[in-house]
Amino acid sequence: MIVILKKNPDKNQMDSLTNWFRSLGVEPHVSVGSHQTIIGLVGDTSRVDMDVIRAMDIVEDVRRIQEPFKNANRKFHPEDTVIDVGGVKIGGGHFAVMAGPCSVESEEQICAVAQAVKASGAQVLRGGAFKPRTSPYAFQGLHGDGIKLLLRAKELTGLPIVSEIMDASHIPLFEDVDIIQVGARNMQNFELLKQLGQLRKPVLLKRGLANTLQELLMSAEYIMAGGNDQVMLCERGIRTFETYTRNTLDLSAIPVLHSLSHLPVIIDPSHATGSAKLVQPMALAATAAGADGLIIEVHNDPAHALCDGPQSLTPADFDTLMHKVEAIRPYAER
Amino acid sequence: MIVILKKNPDKNQMDSLTNWFRSLGVEPHVSVGSHQTIIGLVGDTSRVDMDVIRAMDIVEDVRRIQEPFKNANRKFHPEDTVIDVGGVKIGGGHFAVMAGPCSVESEEQICAVAQAVKASGAQVLRGGAFKPRTSPYAFQGLHGDGIKLLLRAKELTGLPIVSEIMDASHIPLFEDVDIIQVGARNMQNFELLKQLGQLRKPVLLKRGLANTLQELLMSAEYIMAGGNDQVMLCERGIRTFETYTRNTLDLSAIPVLHSLSHLPVIIDPSHATGSAKLVQPMALAATAAGADGLIIEVHNDPAHALCDGPQSLTPADFDTLMHKVEAIRPYAER
Amino acid sequence: MIVILKKNPDKNQMDSLTNWFRSLGVEPHVSVGSHQTIIGLVGDTSRVDMDVIRAMDIVEDVRRIQEPFKNANRKFHPEDTVIDVGGVKIGGGHFAVMAGPCSVESEEQICAVAQAVKASGAQVLRGGAFKPRTSPYAFQGLHGDGIKLLLRAKELTGLPIVSEIMDASHIPLFEDVDIIQVGARNMQNFELLKQLGQLRKPVLLKRGLANTLQELLMSAEYIMAGGNDQVMLCERGIRTFETYTRNTLDLSAIPVLHSLSHLPVIIDPSHATGSAKLVQPMALAATAAGADGLIIEVHNDPAHALCDGPQSLTPADFDTLMHKVEAIRPYAER
Amino acid sequence: MIVILKKNPDKNQMDSLTNWFRSLGVEPHVSVGSHQTIIGLVGDTSRVDMDVIRAMDIVEDVRRIQEPFKNANRKFHPEDTVIDVGGVKIGGGHFAVMAGPCSVESEEQICAVAQAVKASGAQVLRGGAFKPRTSPYAFQGLHGDGIKLLLRAKELTGLPIVSEIMDASHIPLFEDVDIIQVGARNMQNFELLKQLGQLRKPVLLKRGLANTLQELLMSAEYIMAGGNDQVMLCERGIRTFETYTRNTLDLSAIPVLHSLSHLPVIIDPSHATGSAKLVQPMALAATAAGADGLIIEVHNDPAHALCDGPQSLTPADFDTLMHKVEAIRPYAER
Q1: Which of A302, B69, B97, B154 could cross-link to A309 by cystine, CB 3.0-4.6 Å?
Q2: How is residue C229 annotated by DSSP?
Q3: CA distance B126 to chain D (A)
């Protein structure tokens, strides 16, 4: 951390500042220049609050040069984290595809899709029971009944399941869900993150629409600070000025997150693009860039899906995609 | 709503589509061109799901031309909503300033600030008891104890209070809080919004960092659909590429929201800019642009504030600001 | 400037680096920590190329803590610049409104608008002769003939004129134009900026749609480095995810630019919002926030304007606006 | 195009509007509803100016449903354009890699890099002679001398060359340059685009930092409207709120541009990311997503490059990358 002082700082205030830094366990190195005085802080600054320093009279600016996250930080945990979901491994060279419908609609639908995606090589079944919708008048999911249908499809196919949670009070309903997904809109629902930190169950944490990669890692840190270190990071598109695609899929997140953190990185091309015909090229691109997994919407009847039909692949298109993904995997960048 | 069909649409599919529209109570008007066929839907389309239509085989694109919100829509409710908070009126020509510290820190602090801002003309006391912080290691507020201290300051000064809620399970703690604030990160925490819709208490709903004005109004619609029509909209800066200010305060939100909706519009220049020296010009600008109120951070000792010190005004600066605000108000645009 | 070295930097490389800094006239201060070594550079670093340093083997990162602009920098030029345009002063407490049509269309039109805006108190006449249009098929302006018509209106009313240049080769046509405007799309047309730096004539430099305030100041620096110090900075909206307004007007640019630079700051609410009904509140907000001037589109027949009609005020609306602007001016923040 | 009228539009004004549409060669279809009247325009609307319509009294809004570009539009030109550069084909299934240093620095440097990239399979040599730099004090390129050195390297290796132009007045210097590059900052330098439209030489048109894909296609339309149909579109990262990477590479631009246009799409991972270690995964991702080519910075001594060293690959890294690109190509999405 670098503290830049205003011109001609008061000597006493500067002494008290450097003593305060030492009391926090970080060593200040002072460089006095004719125009500017700079204090370099060396040590573990993850618990130092930049805002408190910035408010001080003699301080002009503060800059962090170390990442403010610790449990999620590759510097303190050089080995890749490998998540084990009922035998399916994700991360550290293990690649997994999660597939299924946006929403669980009926037993027939979820079971048919589950069998289809399994046949094509998917290793995890996705399906929404609680659906965050912009409009209060849109279909919001089958809730507890949706979870039951997912468990029925799991029983039938043996695929572990991933489903989105929208409120901490629903945690008991997710007892048998293998991976709990935190949606983009809840990435900074800190109360929910804290509660998930108390579980010992994998969490798929989606990046918020306008959140930086550092903020994503800080949200992972909330979960990990509670003792749950099974976190997967998911890029699903960020909001930009471009309106042709629903969001802009930021694939550079893959190598950046891999360099900053040891956690697996999953890409969701379906929500990012909002269009089935863009899912395939973006899924291949994500694979080539070194993603640890993909999460893809597949529906047996996209034209009649209760939500997000336009972005769902048919089982046949998904099957074609899976063959290409497998062909590209060996050349992927890591 | 406009539905644009693909070239040479199948006649039977088109008939079944138009019949389906009629069954939803909207009348389709078909314009057949040599290159393109367009269906114009006339009527109440707020419950028609665009995604379902877009997924149909014969459909190329769908565009909404009416707003998808109803309770918050000025077209259906031409009169300005006036919120009454213990006698303080906001909206419809009534202007109110909410002021106080970012966090409640101690009885001494909150009472001193409350008395100061009251003396300068503030009509509502703000103070955070639950603080959403990016880092799990930063100060998170005094929680229930913070609410108690706010109520102590309310008792002392008579000022109604506004404080932020972070989870629906905390609602009982807010029983005596006059205005419940929903922070930017929770603007699309739909479970929380639904619960607040069950209350009969004013809600100050902050725009999310990357949310459009239409999404803000849809979130207001979530609260209003539950029967709680006392919603105030708050612009607090959006995330852009500019890094000099913490966020970019979007003041055009004031006239735009006033034209789309009857709800009061409050501006928060403190969080938007993150810098005390920018709060004053932005507060005056918001007043001139026709805001119904301001929410401003004031701290009796910004340099030692436990959070967001750099953006807090001193009571003396706040007093100066209030005089200018009052001078500009008569010339504000409405 | 701060240079952060990789762990355990090679001693010889570090010595050669610090010697190189000294040769550039900046003094390095080295802070050696157990995890990180930091070099603080003190002195004039505006000519040090960060990219060159960043590419060095032993360097992890480089951060600038001083602004990279000099002529435009308030630190080196504390007094406000006052631009004198044929007797009209702008900056340093002098406020001026520039008004007129988006495009010059005919002698009748430009003269009628010029007389109307003069009567309402405008001090400079604006009018486009060269129009940057997204489509090659849209009206592109009257070019040289447009300039002649502007000069005719200047002769008639005595108002100095401002008009946009699109290419350095057109400079001779602008010999009698009082202020040359550089449009947002040309803010980083460095060849054009360099040529304008050779003139001794005021330049109104518009911020690009996606340019930071620092980049705007660097473009001003291009002009000033050539010896032309009569630069006015103009904020005209930035591109964000919000689609309701054409752009998002960033009014915090006013106090920020005033703190970083001594140059006058002009606001263009017409192009920023794209809607006449938003021009008025945003013009008042800009005035309250301390702008040194406004540039506003006025057309005597907006419904038949050849470009940008929807954002043009009628002369009557402009007159109303000018009265409010004058009322607010005394309370504006500086 | 859809024109939405205000409630209860005047009958005469509506008749005159529909007659006007017919005079422009587009057929209006009117749908009258109880709340809204909609006019659907069918025919070639590329020369209809939306702004003129929007300004009319009875009009509430106008929406375009057809793309406003024609020469670049796949609908009117279904076959892929294939660009032939001295025998090297790009587009329509032909893939080419352009590689070389950011700036031409010396004969020794450009020749060494040219030989290295040719040996690894690059088919075009890139090198900057005119360098747009944010700061007027940074190295701006060797200008005409740089072009001469590029031609020397072309002579040596037989590789055609691509180099950036910054001003229309420099066109004569580019007579022997095989591909003229228009940089991101000049994407809407319409005077330059018009002049390039007069040439019969391939143009590599880079997307501006904050420009939509439609605007990129409109800029291509400027060049093509002049008769030069040899345009390649280049995505090089857009500006977003994320600060970890220099820009955000928008790879969904590849399938989107391919569906909207017949022009080849080239990806520049070097400028997009600003970091050599991100170039490789992003180059592979672009290949997998179906790009028609890549443009990559390679320098024989990145640590001493005069610009953009940190994003340049070494020849050895470039060679490794080329092998992976070739392996992935057969599985790329088209």
Answers
A1: A302
A2: -
A3: 29
pLDDT of A8: 79
Residue among B27, B40, B66 whose CB faces D40 most closely: B40
Partner A contacted by C64 (CB < 8 A) = no
Residue tagged 């037989």 (tokens): D158
The Cα B329–Cα B197 span in angstroms is 32
CA dist list (Å): A246 to A138, B46, B254, D136:
18, 21, 26, 38
- Separation between Cα atoms, residue D209 and residue D187, nearest integer Å: 9
Sign of CA dihedral C287, C289, C291, C297: negative
CA distance C147 to C162: 10
Q: What is the pLDDT of residue B290?
A: 97
As a dihedral over the C-alpha atoms of residue A54, residue A58, residue A61, residue A66, rounded to 10 degrees, the angle is: -70
Q: Is A278 helix (H, G, I), strand (E, B) or coil?
A: helix
For C220, the 3-state DSSP assignment is helix
CB-CB under 8 Å, A61 with C42? no
Closest to A265 in 3D by CA, of A74, A90, A85, A72: A90
Q: What is the C-alpha separation between C228 and C43, in angstroms, rounded?
A: 26
Instruction: Provide the strand spans (E) within chain C.
Output: 2-5, 27-32, 37-42, 59-63, 83-85, 88-90, 96-100, 124-126, 161-165, 179-182, 203-206, 231-235, 265-267, 293-297
- The CB density around residue D13, as the number of other CB atoms within 10 Å, is 14
Half-sphere exposure of D323 (CA within 13 A, CB side): 8
Indicate yes or no: CB of B241 within 8 angstroms of CB of C242.
Answer: no
Residues in chain D within 8 Å Cβ distance of A249: 250-252
Distance CA D268, CA A315 (A): 34
Q: Which helix (H) or strand (E) holds A214?
A: helix A213-225
DSSP, res B313: B
Answer yes or no: do A51 and B225 touch at CB < 8 A. Answer: no
**What does residue B225 show for φ and ψ, rounded to 5 degrees?**
-60, -25
Nearest residue on chain C to A75, alpha-carbon basis = C35
In a 10 Å sphere around its CB, with 0-12 CB exposed, 13-18 middle and 19+ buried, how is residue A199 labelled? middle
Asked if D166 lies within 8 A of C303 by C-beta distance, the reply is: no
In chain B, beta strands by DSSP E:
2-5, 27-32, 37-42, 59-63, 83-85, 88-90, 96-100, 124-126, 161-165, 179-182, 203-206, 231-235, 265-267, 293-297
In the beta sheet, which residues pair with residue C2?
Answer: C40, C63
Return all residues near A241 (Cβ < 8 A) that are at least 6 apart.
C210, C239, C240, C241, D210, D212, D238
Number of H helices, E strands in chain C: 10, 14
Q: What is the pLDDT of residues C59-118, one digit of tens each?
A: 887 877 667 888 999 988 999 999 999 999 999 999 999 999 999 999 999 999 999 999
Phi, psi (degrees; rounded to nearest 5) at A320: -60, -45
Q: Cβ–Cβ contacts within 10 Å for residue D227, how many?
A: 11
Low-confidence residues of chain C: pLDDT under 70: 33-35, 47, 65-66, 305-309, 333-334
Which residues face C27 on adjacent strands? C42
Q: How many CB atoms lie within 10 A of CB B176?
A: 11
pLDDT by residue (tens digit) across D97-126? 999 999 999 999 999 999 999 999 999 999
SS3 C177: coil
User: Is A133 part of the contact surface with chain B (CB cutoff 8 Å)?
Assistant: yes
CA D7, D11, D17: angle at the middle one, nearest 5? 90
The whole-angstrom distance between residue A306's C-alpha and the CA centroid of its chain comes to 25
Long-range contacts of D242-246 (CB under 8 A, 24+ apart): D242/A212, D242/A213, D242/A238, D242/A250, D243/A212, D243/B243, D244/A212, D244/A213, D244/A214, D244/A256, D245/A252, D245/A256, D245/D272, D245/D273, D245/D274, D245/D275, D245/D278, D246/D271, D246/D272, D246/D273, D246/D274, D246/D275, D246/D311
CB pairs under 8 A between B and D: 68
Q: Judging by beta carbons within 10 Å of its beta carbon (0-12, 13-18, 19+), is residue C11 exposed, middle or buried? A: exposed
